[in-house]
Structure formats: structure tokens, C-alpha cells
UniProtKB/TrEMBL annotation, chain A:
Keyword Methyltransferase on entry: no
Parts of the chain that traverse the membrane: 31-52, 89-114, 126-151, 163-188, 209-231, 281-303
Source taxonomy: Bacteria, Bacillati, Bacillota, Bacilli, Bacillales
Protein name: Phosphate transport system permease protein
Organism from which the protein derives: Cohnella thailandensis
Cellular component GO terms, alphabetical: plasma membrane
Record keyword 4Fe-4S present: no
GO biological process: phosphate ion transport
Topological category with respect to the lipid bilayer: Multi-pass membrane protein
CDD domains listed in its UniProt record: TM_PBP2
Chief place where the protein resides: membrane
Automatic annotation (TrEMBL), chain B:
Species name: Cohnella thailandensis
Record protein name field: Phosphate transport system permease protein PstA
GO molecular function annotations of the record: phosphate transmembrane transporter activity
Keyword Transport part of the UniProt annotation: yes
Electron transport found in the keyword field: no
Subcellular location: Cell membrane
Transmembrane segments: 12-34, 66-87, 99-123, 129-149, 181-202, 261-280
Gene Ontology cellular component list: plasma membrane
Length: 309, 295
């Protein structure tokens, strides 16, 4: 074999140079990725810091008590004395997002079971793209459809004006359906095959297998999907704001005008002067949204730990 | 026998639900296109909106949406890929990395309105960028970054280990291995994912209400000097995007044909999103074929 002569003079001469080039290259690359990550970390800390600093002002220096805000029923920021009871907004947010999850969860589970157990081929070629498209449709478009289809439908079918928690929940349920379905599908796909085969071998029907084996085993993952869906519904602003009616009180029925945290922020933030008590109270609502996000992420983490075990 | 009947009923219910979801999507798209397509014309797509009269278009809004998208992606893609490279290649398996992972997860679950508010407080007011395209692009970057990071990380992790090891064994630096061995392999999925992320940016409105603003100044499309205030290319002007426009005319539109404009604009938005979806798959395949010499 004719190997090239090792360490010719030229090679030796260029080696330290090349070595330095490689080190410099590595350093530059490293600096760039560390910079990116640092930026990411700084961003999230400044989000929390800035929103907390504004959102805590009403409690710390402007004499609003946390209890009044969380449990007060009246939101009259321009009244005398101004009242900042955010319970109607909290109620609206929780009611719409939980109701949306109640509608979307069974649909999502059925879709996931359909794609993994019943017709995997058809599911992959038709249902999965459909779900992905649903996920891609912008929220304002959902709001527009809600306003021009869902609200008139409820107005004609049920007593009331059609706007309200039910309309909001309907729109939200379609919006979070992809989240629930995707995570449920992944969970069902990752189950060990032996589980299913064992059940079939014992003579169980498909439904018995799904109901007794697959759903209980995948339950924590399914719940993760539902929690993520609720989190998304809780933070959704414009689609809900368009169909819920925006009356700041707790409604007596599902078809009566109500408000959520996000819609009151969307509506009032532009109309208040920065630094005023009203404006700061809105930042407090944003802080509540932020804290709820932390709570949702925490719940998801706890559920994921159960999946791993 | 009974168990079999229950099995049949349950199967029927599940198939019905699956059919219902597909029908729902078909009805949704059908409704938007049937109501909207009739209103879409060249004039509608290019003319400026009218505040009180009928016949307004969505020209500036459409341009703003596209321009904002480009600005956002210019900022997001390098940052997201950089942070993604860190997460998959440089991060050690320790508490700090777990913490950064948690941060990315939290950031991706922040409601977009909260990011919009942060943008209002810091980018618009503290940095003094005002309601502008640049503020909007920065807010959308925050909104989009976690997705880009996760995407890059996953794509890089799916690169076969042997390719990376071969690069390192040839004496390449780690950075060189990443940029010239691993990124090309991971590129198809990064491209597909970024375009899908771009579709999300295109339809986003809540984060833009208080950053890019809800007004669009009169634009002079013959003025291409980026520093002039009436130029469409000026990144420091306020810009209402298509999604924001749909929201605004639905909640406070005064023009007599507001519902038609909303329908037309929604149809345009949905068509764009569909194009992004199809384009992402197509481009991903093309890049894959180019870079791997497989069919």
C-alpha cells in the first residue's frame, strides 16, 4: 500500500495555524450559542419581573387588597371609591376554559383511539391532516366564525343573546381539540404492544381492551393533554373576547354576556393611561394570568413524572 | 354476545366522532371560503381600507403581515437555532440545563396577550420603539422562540450519532461538525418546522395589538426609502396586520360592509395558512432530496 508520506514539511508548518483556526471557530460558535441561551433566560426573567412589578403596585402602594381583587364581585375602576373585584373575570376564564376542555376531551380521545386502534391508515391520511389544519387556523378566524355562526345559532336555539360562556367555550373547544388529540395520540402510540396483545389473547373485545387497558394506562398522558388544552384556552384572548359579550359580572346562565381575564385586558389596556390605578389593576390581572401559566406548567410536570414512573 | 354488541356500539361512536371532526373542518373551511372568496378581488387585495364607506380593501394590512413575518423570521431563526444547538449539543446534563428546559417550556406556554403586554411595557415604552413593526417583530420573536428552540433541538437529536462521531473523528471542531455535518442533515425538519411556525406568526394578533399597533398610516408604495415615514419598508412605523384588522373590524368596524371585509380577510388569512402548511411539507421534501441524494 502506498500511504502518503506522513508529516511532510508543509503539514508541520501549517498545523499550529490550523489548530488555532479550529479553536477560534469553536470559540466563536460557542459564544454565539451561549449568547442565544442567555438572551432566552434574560427574556423570561424580565417578563416576570416587569409584569410583577407593575401588577403588584396596586397592592403594595395604591391600597387595593389582594382579597378584594380575588373575591370582589364589582369591577368599577372609575367609581368613587374605585372597586377592583376580579372574581367575574376569574369565573369567566375558568368557566370557559374548563367547559371547553369538557367538550374537547372526549372528542380528542375518540379521535386518538380512532387513529391508533381502529383505522390507523385512514386516520393518518385524513384525520391527522385535518387536526393539523385545525391547529393552524388563526384565533381571530375562529373568533370571526364564532361571531357569525355559533352566536346566531345559540341565539336562535336558546333563550338569551347567544353571546356568553357557552359560545366562548364552543369556539375554544375547537381551538384546543388539536392539542388534546395530538398528545393523546402520541400517548396511545407509545404504549407497549404486549399490553394490547395480552388483552386480546384473553378474549377481550376491542372496546374492552381500549376501556380497561389502554385508557387507564395512558390516563396521566391524556390528562397532560387536557391540562395543556385548558392552559391554552385560559390564555386565549381575541377569539373569546369576540364572542363572550364582555359584561363585567357573573352571568346567571351560559348564554348571558360574561367576561374573561384576557378579554378585559384586551378591551381596557388601550384606553387607560399608563401608571393610573386602573391601568395598574389591569397589570395585576396580567400577573394572575402569568401565575396561572406557572400553575399549569407545574401540573403538567407532575403528570409527566407519573408517566415516567 | 353482549360484549360484542357493546364493542360494535363503541366502535360506531368513535368512528362517528372521527367523521364529525373531519366534517367540522370541512364545514369550517367551506364556510370561510364560500363567504370570503366572493369578496376577494384584485382591488380588495390591493386597495386601502375605508373607515366609514363601503368598498375598503386590505392592501396595507396584507403587506404589513408579510413584512412583519419576514422581519420576525430574520430575528427568530438565528436566535432559535443558536439556542437549539446549545440545548442539544453543548448543554451538560445537569440542574442548569433542566432549569433552562423548564424556562423554555414556561415561555412557550405564556399566553400571547401576556407577551404583547410585556412588549408594550418594555419594547414600546422603555426602549422607546413606539407602536412599530420592529416592536411587533420583537414581541413575535419572544412568542416564537421557544418553538424554534425545541424544533432545532429535536432535529439535531435525530441526526445519527455515527455522522457526528465521524465528523469529530476527522479532527473537526465541535462547532464545525455541527454546522457542516449535523445541520445539513437536520435542515429539512428545521425548514418544515420554521415554516409552520411562520404560519402561526402570520395569524397571531393578540401579541400585536399593543406592539405593532392597530393603525396603519397612509403608505406610499412608490417610496422605497426605509427611513421615510410613509415608506412601506420603514420598520419604525405602526402597522396593523391582517389578523389584527379582522379583529378590529369585527369588534368596532364602522364600514357598512364590515362583515364582508371580515369574511374576505379571514378567507385570505386561511388560504395563506393553508399555503404555509403545504409549502412547509413540499420544501421539507425538496431540501431533504437535495441534501441526502435520496429519492
Amino acid at each position: 500500500m502506498n500511504l502518503p508520506a506522513p508529516n511532510s514539511r508543509e503539514d508541520l508548518a501549517t498545523k499550529p495555524n490550523k489548530f488555532r483556526k479550529h479553536v477560534m471557530e469553536e470559540l466563536r460558535g460557542k459564544a454565539f450559542v451561549y449568547f442565544c441561551v442567555l438572551l432566552l433566560v434574560i427574556t423570561i426573567f424580565s417578563i416576570v419581573y416587569f409584569i410583577a412589578s407593575r401588577g403588584l403596585t396596586p397592592f403594595l402602594s395604591q391600597g387595593v387588597s389582594i382579597k378584594d381583587m380575588l373575591f370582589g364581585l364589582k369591577w368599577k375602576p372609575e367609581g368613587n371609591p374605585p372597586l377592583f373585584g376580579a372574581l367575574p373575570f376569574l369565573f369567566g376564564s375558568f368557566a370557559t376554559s374548563i367547559l371547553a376542555a369538557v367538550i374537547a376531551a372526549p372528542l380528542g380521545f375518540c379521535a386518538a383511539v380512532f387513529m391508533t386502534e381502529i383505522m390507523p391508515k385512514f386516520g393518518k391520511s385524513a384525520l391527522q391532516p385535518a387536526i393539523e389544519l385545525l391547529a393552524g387556523i388563526p384565533s381571530v378566524v375562529y373568533g370571526f366564525v364564532g361571531l357569525s355562526v355559533v352566536v346566531p345559532f345559540y341565539r336562535d336555539t336558546f333563550p338569551g343573546q347567544g353571546i356568553g360562556i357557552m359560545a366562548g367555550a364552543t369556539v375554544l373547544s375547537i381551538m384546543i381539540l388539536p392539542t388534546v388529540t395530538t398528545i393523546a395520540t402520541d400517548a396511545l402510540r407509545s404504549l407497549p404492544n404486549g399490553l394490547k396483545e395480552g388483552s386480546y389473547a384473553l378474549g377481550a373485545t376491542r372496546w374492552q381492551t381500549i376501556y380497561r387497558m389502554i385508557l387507564p394506562t395512558a390516563l396521566p398522558s391524556l390528562l397532560t393533554g387536557v391540562v395543556l388544552g385548558i392552559a391554552r384556552a385560559f390564555g386565549e384572548a381575541l377569539a373569546v373576547q369576540m364572542v363572550i359579550g364582555n359584561a363585567p359580572h357573573i352571568p346567571h346562565s351560559l348564554f348571558e354576556s360574561a367576561t374573561t381575564l384576557t378579554s378585559i385586558i384586551t378591551q381596557s389596556m388601550g384606553n387607560t393611561t399608563s401608571g393610573s390605578l386602573h391601568n395598574n389593576a389591569l397589570w395585576s390581572l396580567a400577573l394572575i394570568l402569568l401565575l396561572m401559566t406557572f400553575l399549569f406548567v407545574f401540573i403538567v410536570r407532575v403528570l409527566e413524572r407519573r408517566v415516567k414512573r | 354476545m353482549r360484549a360484542k354488541t357493546v364493542d360494535r356500539i363503541a366502535t360506531a361512536v368513535i368512528v362517528c366522532v372521527a367523521g364529525f371532526i373531519i366534517l367540522l373542518l370541512a364545514a369550517l373551511l367551506g364556510y370561510l371560503l364560500v363567504r370570503g372568496l366572493g369578496h376577494i378581488s384584485f382591488d380588495f387585495l390591493t386597495s386601502a381600507p375605508q373607515a366609514l364607506k363601503a368598498g375598503g380593501g386590505i392592501g396595507p394590512q396584507l403587506f404589513n403581515s408579510v413584512f412583519l413575518l419576514v422581519l420576525t423570521m430574520i430575528i427568530t431563526v438565528p436566535l432559535g437555532i443558536g439556542a437549539g444547538i446549545y440545548m442539544s449539543e453543548y448543554a451538560k446534563d445537569n440542574k442548569l440545563t433542566a432549569f433552562i428546559r423548564l424556562i423554555v417550556e414556561v415561555l412557550s406556554s405564556f399566553p400571547s396577550i401576556v407577551i404583547g403586554l410585556f412588549g408594550l411595557l418594555v419594547i414600546v415604552n422603555t426602549f422607546g420603539f413606539g407602536y412599530s413593526l420592529l416592536s411587533g417583530a420583537l414581541a413575535l420573536t419572544i412568542f416564537n422562540l421557544p418553538m424554534m428552540v425545541r424544533l432545532t433541538e429535536q432535529s439535531l437529536r435525530s441526526v445519527p450519532k455515527e455522522q457526528k462521531e465521524a465528523g469529530l473523528a476527522l479532527g473537526l471542531s465541535r462547532w464545525k461538525t455541527i454546522t457542516s455535518v449535523m445541520i445539513p442533515v437536520a435542515l429539512p425538519s428545521i425548514v418544515t418546522g420554521s415554516i409552520l411556525a411562520a404560519g402561526r406568526v402570520f395569524g397571531e394578533a393578540a401579541a400585536l395589538l399593543f406592539t405593532a399597533g392597530m393603525s396603519s398610516p397612509r403608505l406610499d408604495f412608490s417610496n422605497w426609502n426605509p427611513l421615510s415615514p410613509t415608506s412601506p419598508l420603514n420598520p419604525m412605523r405602526p402597522a396593523e396586520t391582517l389578523a389584527v384588522h379582522i379583529w378590529k373590524i369585527n369588534s368596532e368596524g364602522l364600514a357598512p360592509d364590515a362583515p364582508e371585509i371580515a369574511a374576505g380577510a379571514s378567507a385570505v388569512l386561511v388560504i395563506m395558512v393553508l399555503l404555509f402548511n403545504l409549502g412547509a411539507r413540499w420544501l421539507g421534501r425538496v431540501v431533504y432530496r437535495k441534501l441526502t441524494a435520496s429519492k
